[in-house]
Amino acid sequence: MNKPHGAQRLIVPLDVPDAASAVRLATQVSGQVGALKVGLELFNASGPAIFGELAASELPIFYDAKLHDIPNTVAGAVRAATQHGLWMLNVHCSGGAAMLRAAAEAARAAAQPPLLIGVTVLTSLDAAALRDELGVAAEPLAQVVHLARLAQACGLDGVVCSPREAAAVRAACGPEFVLVTPGVRPASADLQDQKRVATPAAAVAAGADYLVIGRPITAAPDPAAAAAAIAAELD
Ligand code: C5P
């Protein structure tokens, strides 16, 4: 796989409540970022028609679907989603090996196979929540590496992880595995509700391929200029 560089690494989440706002934001950042992310809020507000509406931006689309169900149901959802010409799609690794294999098989069979990415451990879960609420004894870092290895063995192309986990996943899964990291903040930016953050350059140094960066770009007075400034900090 060709590894991304500079602005190609930036994925902007369209965390807005309707299609018109999403298209406006996509138009603003087009040319300055590598891809757009459609998450559950926008998808449920606008339906799959949003993928067609974003086509004018000419940016690849990451559908952050976070699928998690029995293998047959996830395979069907992957088949349906891939008809929209997606660049990247994700599923929860905690669905287990049979689910991950079914998802990978469905993705590979698509006319335009997307990169299939696994969500490891949500960054909103800490060690206490994993242990006391979910009954997972492993520390978050060990659990992330465990799930990344599982995803790789089942044929996924990569995982989502925090920048703080990227180096360990890179060491475990090798140079070709695709690492997508949210929780990235330029040194000068407000952290907002993100707690475990890294700067863009630190995330890349840790092994991240793609950085999901939202509010430092989308809430800036000039989103295109903010994206260009971040891209200039990379590589
Ligand atoms: O605005 P901000 O840069 O915090 O946005 C980060 C994006 O990445 C949001 O769309 C958020 O839902 C997503 N995300 C995250 N942490 C994860 C997984 C996804 O912040 N662990």
The CATH superfamily title: Aldolase class I
Overall average residue pLDDT: 95
Q: Per CATH, which architecture? A: Alpha-Beta Barrel
Bound molecules: cytidine-5'-monophosphate
Annotated CATH topology: TIM Barrel
Give helix and strand order, one letter per element, not per position. EHEHHEHEHEHHEHEHEHH
Class from secondary-structure proportions = alpha/beta
Terminal CA distance reads 18 Å
* Order of the strands making up the biggest sheet: 1-2-3-4-5-6-7-8
Largest sheet: 8 strands, parallel, barrel
Q: Would you give an account of this structure?
A:
With 235 residues, this protein is of the alpha/beta class. 43% of the residues lie in helices and 15% in strands. The protein has helices spanning 19-29, 40-46, 49-53, 71-82, 97-108, 127-133, 140-153, 163-173, 200-205, 215-218, 223-233; strands at residues 10-13, 35-38, 61-67, 88-92, 115-119, 158-160, 178-181, 210-212. Helix 4 (71-82) links the parallel strand 3 (61-67) and strand 4. Helix 4 (71-82) packs parallel to helix 5 (97-108) and helix 7 (140-153) packs across helix 8 (163-173). The longest helix has 14 residues, at 140-153. The protein starts with 9 loop residues before the first strand and ends with a helix. The model has no long low-confidence stretch (mean pLDDT 95). Cytidine-5'-monophosphate is lined by residues 13, 15, 39, 122-123, 160, 182-183, 192, 194, 212-215.
